[in-house]
Amino acid sequence: MTQWDTATLRQMDFDHYLHPFSDMQDLKQVGTRIIVKGEGCYIWDSEGNKILDSMSGMSCVNMGYSQPALIDAANAQFAQLPFYTSFFKTATLPAIELATLLAEIAPAGYERVFFTNSGSEANDTMIRMVRRYWDIMGKPNKKTIITRWNAYHGSTIAAASMSGMVSMHDKGWIPIPGIVHIDQPYQLEHGLPGESETDFALRAASWLEDKIKAIGPDNIAAFVGEPAQMAGGAVIPPPGYWQKIQEICRRYDILLVSDDVICSFGRLGKWFGFQHPRIDIQPDLVVVAKAMTNAYFPLAGVILSQGVGDVLVNQGGTFNHGFTYTGHPVAAAVGMATIRLMQQTNILETLESTTIPYFNQAFKQLSDHPLIDHAETLGMMAGFVLYQDKAKKIHFPDPQKIAVMCQQLCYQHGVVMRPAGTRMACAPPLIINEAQIDEMIVKIRHALDATLKAANL
Ligand SMILES: Cc1ncc(COP(=O)(O)O)c(C=O)c1O
């Protein structure tokens, strides 16, 4: 397959290829795992290990690897027209068709989309749009964006500022002005003794109101949140939280943005994460990316509600914003093929009737492991907390170190999870079947046993 052996590739990798979110010295010591093949729910590394990819790449290969319809769509578009721009009053067929298809699968009232290449760019685009919206509405002071600690919205300067990851802020002179944070709705961290889930939901939502009052509603453009925070460790909001957030946004005339980059295209069982019954909101703008093309080609976008779209289009004049690859025809062709594949295979119906309930009951059983507690799922997203002493709810002194070790042991046992602070998370492909879910749980259990042993408890 390749002229290089793994050791040579690892050396070339260290010498030349800078990895995202990585300590290169640490990477050199551990040795890069080089992935050479994917099929269905599995990936293979250069040493021949077959691994169940229960992270769907980066929560994006929702329909699995090696989908011929998507590869064919890309090849056909490469042959027909590999690129043309959407600047200068031109467009390509796939870009128009995908925009129309997105309006078709979205709930009524979401008619328009602006395409970008990544979720980060889409979030930057969203900020420019909401600020432009308020300028047009004659409220130019409404500029501040409110997001949450431990959120992830991307790595460009504005998206990293919106992200509530302190380790990112430390290293980049961010957040930039005009972006502020409130606490996340994570009851394990912020709940009070004896507080019900409902009371916590209302209290967590009230932090938004407190922030609005402190800054002044006339200065705030939007509240932005992920329906559930995958990168933050699969933090699942309590019921009622999002509905209260929406009520507060409406009351103070603040736009509500769903960063649906991970939660859409079936991850929570619906086309969009904000449609999940636990979330159930009508955002003013929706940020999408990742699984829109099953991650086979970079593509992201901002979907606008009728209210915002009409203002920007009918009253906004020229929106001086865009990217060379906005609406890239091959990306759009793969996006269309992905949505068509999801429709043809009735994946959302299978998720609701079979996969999600099975995954939920199987994953929850992990809570009986001595290291972990609160194994929980929302749709096809799942996470748990790693405890040093779970009876007393004591975390490890260096939780990140244990979580990263657990991640490596997961790989060694043929399964993928991602670490996030005190938590471990996963998001398997939506096409996973019951036998594969069982296999995944057994492998995670083996990795947890190995973590327990390595942690010397
Ligand atoms: C919720 C959310 N928003 C935005 C992004 C950034 O997307 P990208 O990595 O495509 O820039 C991510 C990436 O994981 C994400 O999870």
Structural write-up:
The relative contact order is 0.14. The mean pLDDT is 97. The longest helix is centred in the last third of the chain and has 21 residues, at 434-454. The protein is globular, with a radius of gyration of 22 Å. The strands form 3 sheets. A 7-stranded mixed β-sheet has the order 4-10-9-8-7-5-6, with helices on both faces. A 4-stranded antiparallel β-sheet has the order 11-12-14-13, with helices on one face. It has a 3-stranded antiparallel β-sheet with strand order 1-2-3. It folds into 2 domains: 33-63 and 349-454, Aspartate Aminotransferase, domain 1; 69-344, Aspartate Aminotransferase, domain 2. By secondary structure, it is α/β, with parallel strands linked by helices. It contains 16 helices and 14 strands. Helix 10 (197-215) packs parallel to helix 11 (241-251) and helix 14 runs parallel beside helix 16. The site of pyridoxal-5'-phosphate (PLP) has 16 residues, from helix 6. Residues 58, 118-120, 123, 152-154, 226, 230-231, 259, 261-262, 289, 300 line the site of pyridoxal-5'-phosphate.
| Count of alpha/pi helices | 16
Instruction: Using the 3D structure, state the CATH architecture of the largest domain.
Output: 3-Layer(aba) Sandwich
Tell me the count of domains. 2
- Please identify the structural class as seen in this structure: alpha/beta
Task: Give the ordered list of helices and strands.
Answer: HHEEEHHHEHEHHEHHEHEEEHHHEEHEEH
What is the residue-averaged pLDDT?
A: 97
How would you name the CATH homologous superfamily of the largest domain?
Type I PLP-dependent aspartate aminotransferase-like (Major domain)
What compounds sit in this structure?
Answer: pyridoxal-5'-phosphate
Query: Per DSSP, what share of the residues sits in E-state strands of 2 or more residues?
Result: 15-25%
- How helical, in percent, are the residues? 40-55%
Give the strand line-up of the largest sheet.
Answer: 4-10-9-8-7-5-6
- Which residues sit in consecutive blocks of at least 5 with pLDDT less than 50? none
Specify the overall morphology: globular
Amino-to-carboxy terminus distance: 43 Å
Q: What is the strand tally?
A: 14
Largest sheet: 7 strands, mixed
